[in-house]
Amino acid sequence: MLTHLDSQGRAAMVDVTDKPLTSREAVAEARVRMLPATLRLIVEGGHAKGDVFAVARIAGIQAAKQTHTLIPLCHPLLLSRVAVELVAEGEDSVRIRATCRVSGPTGVEMEALTAASVAALTIYDMCKAVDRGMCIESVRLLEKSGGASGHYVAP
């Protein structure tokens, strides 16, 4: 049984020593809502801080690789793939989709969720001077495959 508690009831990292190595993938998303003028500034490349999507993509990738240092009890993983896609949707939002892949004894859901979250926070950071009312929302796991718990697709 997997648990984050040791025999004395204290928080502990799950022991995955005896779990088989399997191919695992997780996809997460986040959305950032903003003023239409802010999205136009980003899409048209007119932001004074540079290419917002490029910086957010790199931030998301770096965050996925450092998830174990950010989230207590997460295992350090040797990720084989991290992709962060950013797409303008409608006139006032950006959809972020992060995909993480690993061959290992434990899943990559937290890495995908962290990548999407940090990419969203990076957009906020880069654009807060022009739009403090931005809203980061709908951070969620979209899909997970591999491992003992099987395949999950969000409804």
From TrEMBL:
Keyword Calcium: no
Protein's UniProt keywords contain Lyase: yes
EC number of this enzyme: 4.6.1.17
Pfam families: MoaC (PF01967)
UniProt domain Molybdopterin cofactor biosynthesis C (MoaC): residue ranges: 13-147
Similarity remark: Belongs to the MoaC family.
Role: Catalyzes the conversion of (8S)-3',8-cyclo-7,8-dihydroguanosine 5'-triphosphate to cyclic pyranopterin monophosphate (cPMP).
Annotated protein name in UniProt: Cyclic pyranopterin monophosphate synthase
Organism in which the protein naturally occurs: Pseudomonas fluvialis
Name of the gene: moaC
